[in-house]
Automatic annotation (TrEMBL):
The keyword GTP-binding does not apply. It comes from Streptomyces lavendulae subsp. lavendulae. SUPFAM superfamilies: C-terminal effector domain of the bipartite response regulators, CheY-like. One of its GO terms (biological process) is phosphorelay signal transduction system. This is Transcriptional regulatory protein DegU.
Length: 228
């Protein structure tokens, strides 16, 4: 996945059932330089418009009429794993956060966030970084670790695990530790785009769809506890 040169290259869609809030978010993002390609006020409309507009980032509320936001997320990310979903919700309930992440969201921001915080979150989400309101990231990482302790069902004739290169394994270990792509690039003295390429190659080899699944894979194998 290539990294956009500026915000004008990042296509964003805003989904919220409150027209004034939706318009205000879209206006702030447009003023910051993002290409806001569509908005929607309910779940079914969000799915239809997103499929037509093909945004890079979906800014999504969870409480939507017609179809809940988590279902919108599942349908759209399932059809296009390259889509990044940033949930923007009034709810900070742990159950809502975890359900959103399990549905494919790559970030979760509370509506109490300021305009600049939202703008930065959308930019980072487009780059592939997980973005969470402070205090929620630890919750999500804890859930990854809990899930990793649940035994996977035995599969007959399970195929041999794909071979990752040393650098791909190194990047995967840092992803599991919760580092952003920028932090990984600085740690390994490589470019942000190179980190993205390693992650995309690893996703392809492991037949995974997004960073959420990648982190769980790494934690299941104890890579988050390995020395970096």
């Amino acid at each position: 996945m290539t990294e956009p040169n500026d915000l004008h290259e990042i296509k964003v869609m805003v989904v919220d059932d409150h027209p004034m809030w939706r318009d205000a978010v879209a206006r702030d993002l447009s003023a910051a330089g993002f290409d806001v390609v569509a908005t929607a006020g309910d779940g079914p409309e969000a799915v239809r418009r997103a499929r037509a507009a093909v945004p890079r980032v979906l800014v999504l509320d969870l409480n939507l009429p017609g179809m809940p936001g988590v279902q919108v997320c599942k349908e759209l990310v399932g059809a296009d794993p390259a889509l990044r979903v940033l949930v923007l919700s009034a709810s900070g309930e742990h159950a809502d956060v975890l359900e959103a992440v399990k549905s494919g969201a790559t970030g979760y921001l509370l509506k109490s966030a300021g305009a600049q915080e939202l703008i930065d979150a959308v930019r980072r989400t487009a780059a592939g970084d997980p973005v969470f309101t402070p205090g929620l990231a630890g919750l999500v990482l804890g859930e990854y670790r809990r899930l990793a302790t649940v035994p996977a069902p035995a599969a007959a004739d399970e195929p041999k695990a794909p071979q990752l290169t040393d650098r791909e394994t190194e990047v995967l270990r840092l992803v599991a530790k919760g580092l952003s792509y920028k932090q990984i690039a600085e740690r390994l003295v490589i470019s942000h785009r190179t980190v993205q390429n390693h992650v995309q190659n690893t996703l392809g080899k492991l037949q995974l769809h997004n960073r959420v699944e990648l982190v769980r894979y790494a934690i299941e194998r104890g890579l988050d506890d390995a020395d970096a």
